[in-house]
Amino acid sequence: MTVQPQADTAEKLVGGTLGERIRTFADGPLFRGDAEVLHGPNPYRRMLFPAALAEADFGRPLGAGDWPAHRSLAAHRLLGTWYEAETVLLPEQGLAGLHDDFDLFYGRDLRELREGAVSELERFAFGCLDDAVDVSGAATPEVLDAYFQHVVAEAAAGPSPALAAVAGARDRESAADLYLVQLALDGLTEASAMSRNLAGAYGPEQSALFKIFIDEFGYGVYDAKHTTIFAKMLRSRSMATHVHAYWNFYLTGPLATNNYYYYLSRDHAKFFRYAGAVTYAEAVFAPAFVEMVKVFRDIFGDAVDLHYCDEHAHIDEHHGRITREQVLLALAERHGPRVVPELMRGVAEARLVGGWFEEDTAAQIRWADDLPRHRDLAGAAQVTGTRRVVLTPGSPFGTRCHDDDTVLEIERGEADLITTPTGAPERLGRGDAVLIPAGRLYGAKPAGAETVCLLHTAAPG
């Protein structure tokens, strides 16, 4: 007698639709969330909001203007989780009590689900860049360098929209903390994507990239590692320092920006594109951190530890020179005109995706800082559809956004509207309503035994 093994869930769904595979992954016990607003010191658990995923259409790829959409947020939360499953995450306090979560996060079932879907989800999330960026024209090192110098000078000349929003906020401390959280997405796992481009053999350019990598890791000295000094900055603001404590507050634009470098690094056919992207990033980091130091010193004085920013403002000038001269232009000279369009595309895409970071962060700060006005706007909105959401004290807390302007109204009970990681929540009682603009991130937490929320889709205009 021959016994046929039963196919497990992952095997059954490897051939399912992208949406089916995603929802199966997100419905796992690691990703359902709990009632807490912040995630505890467990890097394997993060809220993927399975209930909201049911609304997302993964059969229609994102267009260039769709990056703030709800399905974009969902896709980038998933991609970030999948990319990190290819890195080593261990909790600082040790694995005691978390061995089962470790085994599940890195185990066969979830691995097969993500490996069977990651390329398709990448095309869904980043395929729009193919049409959004045009790199036609002469393919010479001179043209590449001229374009690179132009876009870097442009970035250095203008103020950061996100930092301008921080500086102009009424509650500048909460706005600054929200900005820090977006940096924490990379700052607590810094250079993880870069590490995937260090193996192999590709000459002096490989050594140049490795110089930057070992700088990020403090030349083997843990106290000098950039993630360590980033944690000091968070600690000076009395913020949590474990990986993804603020998972619920990562915005779509910053998630996409972080994922972009993993996306390029996972596929070595995109190596030259990665080289262009990392060169652009290193060149614009230094002036951005100089601006951040000015804004944060004006808000906090000496009460905030800005060692991380000072370090990057200094060392990224050096990294910018290395990547331009010893990586970008060296690769163009060594490998000829055929690689120049890919190098240039990397520069252009990094510039575009970096703009998503700035635009999204600035918009979230401005909205969260102006909720009284959005209460007034809710009263004037014309609504076209309504759905009811029931929250209880045990309901998992998660954040989401909507594709359309949405009015959140409390039909029964009370709820706290949470829009920033450290700011005071906005208490909403029975009959209260607030307008949530399309793309803005929020969560609602019940303040009593049970709260009933109404979500009204607002008519355009």
From TrEMBL:
SMART domains: Haem_oxygenase_2 (SM01236). InterPro entries: Haem_Oase-like_multi-hlx, RmlC-like_jellyroll, RmlC_Cupin_sf. It comes from the Bacteria. This is Iron-containing redox enzyme family protein.
